[in-house]
Design a protein that fits this description.
19% of the residues lie in helices and 30% in strands. It is α+β, with helices and mostly antiparallel strands. The chain has a single domain, classed as Pseudouridine synthase (2-Layer Sandwich), CATH 3.30.2350. The longest helix has 13 residues.
């Protein structure tokens, strides 16, 4: 099993980006990583030249990079996807038969997925849900919308973890696996995720929290979270080979931790 200190180092010469990606779980059949934000899971149909996790992993396997060579890795393929800006648990199969079993498992919607999100607004209930059906937007490629007549069945359950002034930290449990499901469901409930520009989320600025905030001359304020404030925190599933329960947890990214720290300090209820 991969120890928490294990990492896989990847780089993209084309963009000069570098990632040191934590290994969350590993055995002879499975590999789980903590995907960073702003890295595609697989090639993007609208921007195929941007780096993506699966191609970077495959390139390293083919050239015998140290992380792949020491494991003897010859096959690796993702069992599900995370959005470009979403960080957190992503699971890979180390063989084709295991990938088929995982595909069946995810297709049956049995894996239990928990996300955390910082959203605009303060819902009155501590627990709530939506069954709004979803479909692709007719004129905006890559964007989803609520479509109660023609959309696919979708359900997400939410639990409030922490309330702040005008902002809420939510636990989100998608029971189906539609594209952008958590994001569009929250936007539909008028609780857009902070930083989610596609679905109406605004930036979280320290100046909006701290009354005596002063920006230095000739400087531009940057948001506390530069991407969509959504993180795949936990994945629980039956192991495709042993049948034993596997629970995989990913630590929050640094900017989400920082944002919550400032919210607790300056926006506590």
């Amino acid at each position: 099993m991969g120890a928490p200190s294990d990492t896989i180092k990847l780089s993209s010469p084309a963009t000069r980006d570098f990632w040191e990606i934590p290994v969350l779980f590993e055995d002879e059949h499975l590999l789980a990583l903590n995907k960073p934000a702003n890295l595609f899971t697989s090639p993007d149909r609208y921007d195929p030249n941007r780096p993506n996790l699966i191609q970077l992993l495959h390139r390293d396997i083919e050239r015998g990079a140290p992380w792949a060579a020491k494991r003897g890795t010859t096959y690796l393929f993702n069992a599900h996807r995370l959005d470009l800006e979403t960080s957190g648990v992503i699971l890979f199969a180390k063989s084709k038969p295991v990938l088929v079993e995982l595909a069946n498992l995810f297709g049956s919607e049995k894996p239990n997925k928990i996300y955390v999100a910082l959203v605009q607004g303060t819902p009155p209930e501590d627990q709530f849900a939506t069954d709004a059906k979803l479909s692709p937007h007719p004129v905006r490629p890559g964007v989803m919308r609520v479509d109660q007549r023609e959309g696919k069945r979708s359900r997400t359950e939410f639990t409030i973890r922490e309330r702040f002034n005008g902002i809420t930290l939510l636990e989100c449990r998608p029971l189906t696996a539609r594209t952008h499901q958590v994001r569009i469901h929250l936007a539909y409930l008028k609780l857009p995720i902070l930083g989610d520009k596609v679905y109406g989320g605004s930036e979280l600025l320290l100046s909006s929290l701290k009354s005596d905030y002063r920006l230095k001359r000739n400087q531009v304020e940057r948001p506390l979270i530069a991407t969509t404030a959504l993180h795949a925190e936990q994945l629980t599933l039956a192991h495709p080979v042993t049948g034993n329960e596997v629970k995989i947890t990913a630590e929050w990214p640094k900017d989400l931790n920082v944002a919550v720290k400032f919210l607790r300090r300056y926006a506590a209820v």
